[in-house]
């Protein structure tokens, strides 16, 4: 259907800040009508944490430029979506709104209510898939329920057909005769100022669709070979670092999946399968969130509701600042603060440390990650925290407690990762880089380390903390 001119369609961007593989855009183009691209700054930032607000600012700048190259623009408006859309409809005469679906519980609630309200006003609202490989409701167990265990979910995923082919970006987007007013991005104050804690983010990241595609190409060329094993080594370049791009939809999972298909034959099967399996962990997290919308707030396993979490504001702060006295934990927490991201292996180690060594409620960790990660994702973050805590679906058993020393020695054997993010330990020999507290005094002196002064003493003794955690868990489980 082509009626060039006519009433405009509103194209509402949310967690899909890209032009390629964007079904809402593809549909807008087929209408042949003028298109009004829109981003709404929703109350409470949508609700994005501060690190992701930094990302959003730069991503919107990039999206604006890409739209301008198509002869279009990006309209910025702030407020509750219904009010913003009603105003824009009244101003522009638009009769149709298009968007790609989002799958967090608040997003689903907002969008369902909105769709009904718009329809009642005679406005057509169309939504499309694209944030996930498959809709989160698609996979069903033999009895019609949802999956609580990853492996059968993966098997069902594998046998449910290939995800759809990604779509190419549009060549042009017809503009309206008159552009409605737009707000100014700087007025949204998404960037930190005093202090500018994001200074180092700029060296690590290039937000936006082009940055995401470049990251994918670089990873495919240099990082994917060996991924299955080397993805566990935080000092090595064997992970994609695509997560923040995925979180705001600058790249679609289908585009990454397709890259793995194109490469079949050039890259070892175990590396490709391993990457696919990680993408499917993301799908599994959304599957869980979809069926258990309180995933970020409530224990998936009710057994944990009576867990005796400790109230330890000082311990929490030392963990947040990377001052626990355990180098691999501190390196991870400082990587997070400096770059807005942390390697997956180290996320598991620091999460285990918070929950098991410090006995602090996993929800504190989930909240801190949500605010500081540029890839903060409502499904993966909540599901992963519950996985580490032992309270989640298909979780690691509680008694599997990460030892921060042996994990460091195994996955950062020469201490390169620790030396990068905890420079005060740089001169320590490899033997003590993960346990400075065991180093003889002359070794510490030679390395310029003074425990308790230049680097903290451990805030807990891991062995004793482990026993304490196991006792707490035994109490929870009742006498055996
Ligand atoms: P790669 O290894 O290159 O993997 C490719 C993609 O697969 C990732 O971008 C991601 O989308 C997906 N993926 C990989 N591992 C996982 C996983 N374990 N669970 C779900 N998806 C995965 N991931 C987030 O995207 N957002 C979060 O807020 C988040 N919070 C986490 C909190 C904790 C406590 C833990 C242990 C993990 C968390 N993860 C989260 C999962 C994982 O750590 C990151 O997805 C991964 O480190 C991102 O780096 P990458 O893009 O280089 O991953």
Automatic annotation (TrEMBL):
Highest taxon above the source species: Bacteria
**GO BP, sorted A to Z:** photoreactive repair; response to light stimulus
Keyword hit for Lyase: yes
User: What GO annotations for molecular function exist for this entry?
Assistant: deoxyribodipyrimidine photo-lyase activity; DNA binding; FAD binding
User: Known catalysed reaction(s)?
Assistant: cyclobutadipyrimidine (in DNA) = 2 pyrimidine residues (in DNA)
List residue numbers at the site (Electron transfer via tryptophanyl radical): 309, 362, 385
Q: How is the cofactor bound?
A: Binds 1 FAD per subunit.
A Pfam match is FAD_binding_7
Annotated InterPro entries: Crypto/Photolyase_FAD-like_sf, Crypto/Photolyase_N_sf, Cryptochr/Photolyase_FAD-bd, Cryptochrome/DNA_photolyase_1, DNA_photolyase_1_CS_C, DNA_photolyase_N, Rossmann-like_a/b/a_fold
Q: What is its EC number?
A: 4.1.99.3
Names of the cofactor(s): (6R)-5,10-methylene-5,6,7,8-tetrahydrofolate; FAD
The alphabetical list of record keywords is:
Chromophore, FAD, Flavoprotein, Lyase
Q: Name all Photolyase/cryptochrome alpha/beta domain ranges.
A: 7-133
Which residues are noted in the entry as FAD-binding?
227, 375-377
Sequence similarity: Belongs to the DNA photolyase family.
Q: What is this protein called?
A: Deoxyribodipyrimidine photo-lyase
Q: Which organism is it from?
A: Ciceribacter ferrooxidans
């Amino acid at each position: 259907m082509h009626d060039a001119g006519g009433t405009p369609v509103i194209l509402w961007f949310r967690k899909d800040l890209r032009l390629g593989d964007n079904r809402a855009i593809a549909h807008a183009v087929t209408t042949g009508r003028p298109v009004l691209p829109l981003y709404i700054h929703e109350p409470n930032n949508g609700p994005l944490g501060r690190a992701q607000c930094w990302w959003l600012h730069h991503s919107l700048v990039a999206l604006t430029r890409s739209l301008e190259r198509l002869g279009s623009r990006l309209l910025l408006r702030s407020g509750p979506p219904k009010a913003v859309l009603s105003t824009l409809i009244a101003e522009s005469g638009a009769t149709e709104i298009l968007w790609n679906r989002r799958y967090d519980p608040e997003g689903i609630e907002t969008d369902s209510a909105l769709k009904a309200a718009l329809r009642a006003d005679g406005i057509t609202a169309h939504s499309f898939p694209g944030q996930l490989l498959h809709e989160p409701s698609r996979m069903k167990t033999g009895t019609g329920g949802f999956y609580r265990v990853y492996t059968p979910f993966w098997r069902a995923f594998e046998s449910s057909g290939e995800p759809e082919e990604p779509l190419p970006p549009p060549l042009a987007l017809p503009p309206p005769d008159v552009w409605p007013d737009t707000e100014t991005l700087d007025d949204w104050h998404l960037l930190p100022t005093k202090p500018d804690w994001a200074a180092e983010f700029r060296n690590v990241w290039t937000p936006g669709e082009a940055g995401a595609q470049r990251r994918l190409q670089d990873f495919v060329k240099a990082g994917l070979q060996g991924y299955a094993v080397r993805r566990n080594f935080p000092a090595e370049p064997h992970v994609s670092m695509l997560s923040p791009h995925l979180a705001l939809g600058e790249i679609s999972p289908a585009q990454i999946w397709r890259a793995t298909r194109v490469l079949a034959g050039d890259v070892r099967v175990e590396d490709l399968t391993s990457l696919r399996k990680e993408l499917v962990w993301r799908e599994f997290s959304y599957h869980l969130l979809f069926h258990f919308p309180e995933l970020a707030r409530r224990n998936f396993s009710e057994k944990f509701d009576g867990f005796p979490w400790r109230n330890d504001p000082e311990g929490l702060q030392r963990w947040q600042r990377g001052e626990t006295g355990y180098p691999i934990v501190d390196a991870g927490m400082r990587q997070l603060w400096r770059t807005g991201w942390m390697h997956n292996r180290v996320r598991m180690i620091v999460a285990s440390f918070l929950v098991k060594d410090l006995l602090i409620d996993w929800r504190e960790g989930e909240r801190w990650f949500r605010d500081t990660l540029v890839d903060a994702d409502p499904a993966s973050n909540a599901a992963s925290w519950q996985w580490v805590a032992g309270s989640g679906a298909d979780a690691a058993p509680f008694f599997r407690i990460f030892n921060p020393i042996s994990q460091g020695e195994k996955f950062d054997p020469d201490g390169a990762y620790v030396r990068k993010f905890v420079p005060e330990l740089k001169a320590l020999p490899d033997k003590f880089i993960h346990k400075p507290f065991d180093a003889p005094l002359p070794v510490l002196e030679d390395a310029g380390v003074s425990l308790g002064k230049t680097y903290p003493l451990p805030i807990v003794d891991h062995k004793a903390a482990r026993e304490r955690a196991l006792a707490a868990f035994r109490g929870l489980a009742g006498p055996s």
